[in-house]
Structure prediction request, 292 residues.
Amino acid sequence: MSAEYRRPVFPDVPEEGLFGPDSMIWKINRENVVLLGGPAAAILQIAHPSVARGVIEHSQFQYDALGRLRRTLDAIYAIAFGDGEEVNAMAARIARRHEKVRGEMPRESGRAGAPEAHSSSRPSYSAFDPDLQLWVLATLVFTAVDLYERFVGPLASEEKERYLREMRLWGVFFGLERSYGPQGWAAYHDFYQAMLQGPLLGSDSTSATITEALVHPTRPRWLAFGMPLMEFLATELIPSPVRERLGLCSRGWTRTAWRMLGRGLPPIYRVLPAGLRFAAAYRRAVRRWPQK
Prediction:
């Protein structure tokens, strides 16, 4: 391989955890409705050819899409809501897993088309590549904010800035330095939009292959019953032209259903009891957090 990346060194974590009740991460990531964006975020991640190559060569994603999504969610919640011991244990587990995710890109693949500040001609990939981590983090940040504002309520500009700052700290425990790449909401949003509208995402057939496995899962068998919902959510949340490159097709009825969901779900969701509305990891964290 032509490039090597060092295993990250993690900062000290307070005993009670990285964040707390006043953080934007707790405010946004506790909402179960944000999980509706999970399939779209996962597909946007693997739309990047290098991420797709790492997934298809180092996981059983084609046969265990649900398991991979669940493990990703466990990692997200552990670092956002866990105590110091949980955060450190999960970060070490992620680092061990990521050390193995490296390899050579096929000759016809590559990373041409990425924004100039983040492009590279390296014919290789690594889970420690900060450009890839920057993209993965962006899919999580902007999908979560999108779902929150659709179904919970609007966020002020200052709240979005705080959320991004906290998610950049969160990203350190996946190996992404806080100082790397665009800083601030506007700059990161511009980067995200440039990626969505550029030629790179969905340019490799491997991305479409993994997308098909995600929206049409075969294992476990019962998951096939949820296939229409998975495909519906991914299709309507992933913008053009990436959506079409991945073989997803927005139709009149899906757009109508999405608009109806946007109108009908928020008033119901906002009055749900905490046990249904908020993630279990958040509710455990609230009970654990020192009372001041």
Q: What stands out?
A: The longest strand covers residues 102-104.
